[in-house]
Amino acid sequence: MGHYLGLDLGTSSLKALVIDQNQTPLATASVPLTVERPHFGWSEQSPESWIAACEDVIAILRREAPDALAGVEGIGLSGHMHGATLLGEDDRVLRPCILWNDTRSHAEAAELDDDEARRITGNIVFPGFTAPKLLWVARNEPETFAKVRRVLLPKDYLRLWLTGEAVSEMSDAAGTSWLDTGARRWSEPMLDRTGLPLSAMPRLVEGTETSGTLRGELASRWGLKAGIAVAGGGGDNAASACGVGVTRPGTGFLSLGTSGVLFTASAGYDPAPETALHTFCHAIPGLWHQMGVTLSAAGSLEWLSHLLQEKPGDLVAQAGDKLEEPGRLLFLPYLSGERTPHNDAAVRGAFVGLSADTSRADMVRAVMEGVAFSMRDCLDAAPHAGWVRQLVAVGAGSRSSLWLRIMASVLETPVALPAAGDFGAAFGAARLGLCAATGADPDAVMTEPPIAARHEPDARLTEAYAQAHHRYQALYPALKAAAIRS
């Protein structure tokens, strides 16, 4: 049976996962990456470090799972989105990649964000997106900009090294502000606005299509077969959706990582940029997805843990496991600003309703509820959210049964927890590699993982949570007015 390799280029590590034809994981390896922050608001990474990490992760697999690696017949790629990798003549890297969480181009993003941009791309132009970064480079590093011959997203630079082909795919390209998202093609008007020709963009494929084949020199050095197909792959969230089977209309996932993501798949293109909801192409042909983002989900518990000097797991244990009506204490999780639905980088969070008898357990529950209310804002912003029959929970926060039950009741949507296993972006990338190599139907491959628990909304508490959510929403204007803005 053939094996399939998923490579997930994350911000903090590059992960590799090998699965077999039955999608059983055979081997995994991970190599850390570092981020440079030379100035306030800047976030950069060396593209050369991605290549070194890939060499290292393959070396680990060759040493620890040689048979699993040797059987690879297809490769899929996933990666962090929005990064600007600038290449000059002979595809030489011109400067460190400007990452998704870099905010230096906020003024350029505001300049680009108008009715035309939203009509073409279906999205607000956020400072983290790729296009405003190039406008910033043109104005602040003109000597570098003059040498730019190609712009690639991070995983696509890794692909260039793997295959020799400059290719991107729809889900990642949709986060650049250069894609006509509804038509699934590059937009020359948006490229013109950042001074770039169409020739600076890579060729586009769907995530399940073959983008190229592994270079012979690498195949020989790694002991792999010649001509291995490399799939288009997907941006990190689209690849994660492939990993948990969120690839059909009516499906969605809830990610409780450092940030929170509510991701829903849709067959039609129905953007709602005024809500700060992302509307991107999916990695599956003919499919789009909408994604609401709260910037501090499990990160809010990490913050409270640091503040109270107690481990997150110990804090959560103090909150107990009984689902109760929300208390007086409210928490707004805007520790780093907020994305959906406010698009407000300056607003900051708050506890409201503190009293002399407030306990640690009260604060933990308020944090959990506040993040749930933020995710409810994301759900309400999505035009097709009412069609979602359940949300699959992923991320560190999904380890808390209490939090998932709160989420189900606040979102009024069943929340399912996968059985133990690795169903993240690397798994989704491997699935895309399988599709590209074999021509398999994505619907047959991108199945839901085994479910360990399914949490239904508690009908006794949904109205109380809805009222608490209304109180939560009413506080944003005051916080917005109080925020210090530069």
Strand content: 15-25%
* Oligomer class: single chain
Overall helicity: 25-40%
Largest sheet, in brief, is: 7 strands, mixed
Average of the residue pLDDT scores: 94
Indicate the overall shape.
Answer: globular
Radius of gyration: 22 Å
Give the number of DSSP strands: 24
Cα(first) to Cα(last) distance is 59 Å
Uncertain segments: none
From the helix content, strand content and strand pairing, which structural class follows? Answer: alpha/beta
Instruction: Tally the helices.
Output: 18
Write the layout of secondary structure elements.
Blueprint: E1 3-9, E2 13-20, E3 25-32, E4 44-45, H1 47-64, H2 66-70, E5 72-79, E6 85-87, E7 97-98, H3 106-112, H4 115-121, H5 130-140, H6 142-147, E8 150-152, H7 154-163, E9 167-169, H8 170-173, E10 179-180, E11 185-186, H9 188-193, E12 203-205, E13 210-213, H10 216-222, E14 229-231, E15 234-235, H11 236-243, E16 251-256, E17 260-266, E18 278-281, E19 288-294, H12 298-308, H13 312-318, E20 330-332, E21 350-352, H14 360-381, E22 390-394, H15 401-411, E23 415-418, H16 425-438, H17 442-445, E24 451-455, H18 462-482
Parallel strand pairs: 1-5, 5-14, 5-15, 9-12, 16-22, 22-23
Antiparallel strand pairs: 1-2, 2-3, 4-7, 6-8, 10-11, 13-14, 16-17, 17-19, 18-19, 20-21, 23-24
